[in-house]
Design a protein that fits this description.
The protein is α+β, with helices and mostly antiparallel strands. It is built from 16 helices and 20 strands.
């Protein structure tokens, strides 16, 4: 199908003015927050599941790829149109359709910002637990696609633990319901397969999420250390003591410098690391937990501790952590963020290895991560315009992922695989494992048109490359 005819058909579905196809307009959609670039053939703004269904059927008739996109905050290339085709932009599907307090559920469209839902729930005394650092601009649909986490995931789990139902447009255009308001449904857990599938098995158009009551009391600490190892040991000791904080976050010296220059949160520039520790729960017994945390920190040579005494002080401590990724732009024009996860006890060993890899390739690496569940986010800083430097950064990134796997960890905690970590899947899986994943992909998407080139690398079969099998 010729492009002009394709554009006319898309406009007949979503209306004129809702299709972007000019060369300059398409440039905006060739990238996300990863290092990859690829131009789409067109971008369409859908406002309903029916429009999404019609667009997918059109893509099938033209035999061209399609993929969903929200805010484009993806850190692994998941919303980059790797094979061209149609970007189905969902940012206008941004309505909170229902908040059901009696059943502690909310129904939202995929384009709703995570923070928008939080802001709607807070005055009612509720919140939605998955809280990625990008929550001001990342969408619930994108969070579903990547199975996003955030600081609260230590205690409350990631997105899949809080999504109960989905409306999904399958790669052939069918609109189906998976799960619902109830906790359990009979049959295969299709919802569980779709959450975290990075838009490769269909496009989510409605989401039912679990909401929770705000905690009766919250205590937030900033613990300052002269040693990364001491901070890491504190994390292990807190968990070993049977205490489950809501969050346990760590930032190292390089990241602290960037954050303090950016938001002036009051972090010490001479510290090697800080922990943000947050307890939540009932007021009864909270003071005992606070004292236990202080004791454990002191045992591990904490230099200084600050306890937030008001919501304003708590927000000040968190603003730096939430803005850490953006803040490093003050130090270097580009960064690549890793997302490996390791057993907590292995954190000091892997952090040492990360530093060695940085020295090996001559690139500075800052660390900011969910220390409580071992989810590392090494930020490799560089100048993307230097192609030689870019190649070194990619090699360093893969070595860090291999180091995580070597200690029993994995290559993603919440940012997904996308394009950026595609070949690192071989660090974890063999041919048979990946072939099993391809069987799932082909069942949902036999023509491999739905966000192709992501999540699962091509493997050779008796019919040739799996990705092109029909």
């Amino acid at each position: 199908m010729k492009k002009k005819k394709l554009i006319r058909k898309m406009e007949s579905i979503v209306g004129k003015g809702n299709v972007v196809h000019s060369p300059t307009g398409l440039i905006v959609y060739e990238y996300d927050a990863s290092l990859h670039r690829a131009l789409p053939d067109a971008v369409t703004f859908a406002t309903s599941a029916e429009q999404v269904s019609s667009l997918i059927k059109l893509a099938n008739s033209a035999n061209i790829p399609f993929l969903p996109r929200g805010s484009g905050t993806n850190l692994s290339g998941g919303t980059v149109p790797a094979k061209g085709g149609i970007v189905i932009e969902l940012s206008r599907m941004n309505h909170i359709l229902d908040i059901d307090l009696k059943n502690q559920r909310a129904l939202v469209e995929p384009g709703v910002f995570n923070q928008t839902l939080q802001d709607a729930l807070a005055p009612l005394g509720y919140y939605y637990a998955p809280d990625p650092a990008s929550q001001k601009v990342s969408t619930i649909g994108g969070n579903v696609g990547e199975n996003s986490g955030g600081p609260l995931c230590l205690k409350y789990g990631v997105t899949t633990n809080h999504v109960l139902g989905l409306e999904v447009v399958l790669p052939d255009g069918q609109i189906v319901q998976m799960g619902g308001k109830a906790l359990e449904y009979p049959g295969y857990d299709l919802k569980g397969i779709v959450v975290g599938s990075e838009g490769t098995l269909g496009i989510v158009t409605k989401i039912i999420v679990r909401i929770m009551r705000l905690a009766e009391e919250v205590k937030t600490f900033l613990a300052i250390y002269d040693s990364v190892e001491d901070a890491g040991q504190t994390v292990s000791d807190i968990i070993a003591a049977g205490i489950m904080p809501a969050t346990l976050e760590m930032m190292d010296k390089l990241v602290l410098k960037a954050v303090e220059e950016s938001v002036h949160a009051g972090y010490p520039l001479d510290a090697e690391a800080v922990l943000i520790i947050e307890l939540d729960g009932l007021a009864e017994g909270m003071n005992h937990l606070v004292q236990r945390i202080i004791e454990i920190c002191k045992k591990n040579r904490v230099r200084e501790m600050e306890v937030a005494e008001s919501d304003e002080e708590r927000d000040r401590l968190w603003v730096g952590r939430k803005g850490a990724f953006g803040a490093v732009g003050r130090l270097y024009p580009s960064y690549m963020v890793n997302d490996g996860t390791v057993p907590r006890a292995k954190l000091p060993q892997v952090l040492k290895k990360v530093a060695e890899i940085g020295k090996k390739y001559g690139v500075p690496i800052g660390n900011v991560f969910h220390a409580g569940d071992g989810n590392l986010h090494p930020l490799i800083l560089f100048d993307e315009r230097d192609k030689n430097q870019l190649e070194l950064v990619k090699r360093a990134s893969y070595e860090i992922l291999q180091a995580c796997v070597d200690v029993g960890g994995t290559i993603s905690g919440e940012h997904g695989i996308g394009i950026e970590k595609l070949q690192a899947m071989w660090f974890l899986f063999g041919w048979k494992d990946l072939d099993a994943m391809w069987k799932v992909k082909r069942t949902f998407d036999p023509r491999n048109l739905c966000n192709p080139g992501k999540l699962v690398p091509e493997i050779e079969t008796e019919k040739g490359p799996t990705a092109r099998a029909r």
